[in-house]
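Format notes (please read before filing issues)

Several people have asked whether sequences and structure tokens are stored in separate files. They are not. Every record keeps both together, in the order shown below: the sequence lines, then the token lines. Line labels are part of the format and must not be stripped during preprocessing.
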Amino acid sequence: MNLDWKVCSRARLSRDPRFDGKFFIGVTGSGVYCRSICPAPTAKEKNCQYFPTAAAAAEAGFRPCLRCRPESSPGTPAWQGTSTTVSRALRLIAESGLEDGGVEGLAQRLGIGSRHLRRLFLRHLGATPIAVANTRRMHFAKKLIDETRLPMNQIAIASGFGSVRRFNAGIRKFYHRTPTQIRRLARQKEVQPTNQYVFRLNFRPPFHWQGMLDFLSLRCTPGVELVEAGRYLRTISIDGRHGYFEVSADHDKHVLVTRIAIGDPRWLFTIVERVRTMFDLNADWISISTTLRNDPVLATKLDSAPGLRVAGCWDAFELATRAILGQQVSVKGATTLAGRLAEKFGRAIRGPQGLTRLFPEPAILAEAQLGSIGVTAARAETIRSLARRICEGRISFTGVVDPEIFVEKLCEVPGIGKWTAQYVLMRALGQPDAFPSTDLGLLRAMNLRDPKELERRSEAWRPWRAYAAMYLWRSSGQQSVVGRKAVLSEIQPGSTQDPGSLEDLSFA
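Then the structure lines:
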């Protein structure tokens, strides 16, 4: 991947946070690589080299800057400037690293040879798959050293090292300092309560935090999620460990402050990555808005709410179940049903501020009698069928290589159609071009009645159609109540069309 050094130079000199994480600067004099917003004295241009990724800078022999902390920079959008194969590989590495068979196993899942995969990574990212995975692991270890009081042996485990010895050797080689020396330089001095951890997750401005909360607050499952006083809270369960997290925004520092409470620090990396995905922290709004502004309808909506992101989810099965519950009912009605489902079938836990339930797992809902909580027979069977297929391994939300094949498998579940599948693809799998074109709210926002016409119109929005959907839903939610009722009346009871298109008629 070739970078225009003149463009990078102007961005570096501006120290504009909107370019943070889009490239890294290797400084030959000091031997470190920095973010574009590094507060250190500006290096001379003749001493600077530019790299598309932190891994590429590390491969060139530079070590991470301890002042601007490259491990804290917003992630580079995997789908921008890379081939489809590389972007899919990056998603798989983010989910499980290279634990399942190494580079050869990763290449096999992608349907290509391992040598070709390495060539693609070098061409697009300037580093091999192993270097990318190793840099991610090192960066997270550094983040744990700086931002937590965890003992070094627990940090070694949490960041994926097989032993403390390998951890110490890896950190020393990567940072030219021991873990203890790095901790002495750490700014974080506050002692956190036992089993509670605070992380500051950077994003590129602008970030429409209130728009994110507006969207999530309408869909919060009672007892499981809560939006209150500018914060989002929810319960979590991972590998039998239960806890919760809380997220709030610090706009002055361009970070989401994330507080995690869980008993096993081994899962912190997974939790942090899922929170980053859930709140779409890798998005590059400048690139997104540049494309969407070409449509005059969207241009005005972007100006009214700059920085709106695609709201993801904590758990894909939970999101899919919530989408099924939302078929042919209002958002409020679906939220009520989700709360009843969690209350009856979810495990009780002690959380803060009314967080009392974990969302039920597929094994529980596979045979659950949902009619008792008011779910129609058809919707109940759809949920049970989906849960059974997940338990049997016929459907998996992790390790998705081909989104089109995933959609086909999802649509094989009776009661799941194109709208629900695209909605899951968009919010659960983070596909930036997913687009539920049959959605009545989207059609109404564009003053169209034919989904095919909307599909044609949306071609100009690729590859950011999911972001266009968020803006259109936001505007359709600002329609009058009478307008929404008129749309609701367009679907007749018993219709055989995919009925999930009512889920997002209301935004705010």
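For reference, the curators noted about this record: The first strand starts at residue 24 and ends at 27. Residues 316-344+359-502 form a domain with the Endonuclease III; domain 1 fold (CATH 1.10.340.30).
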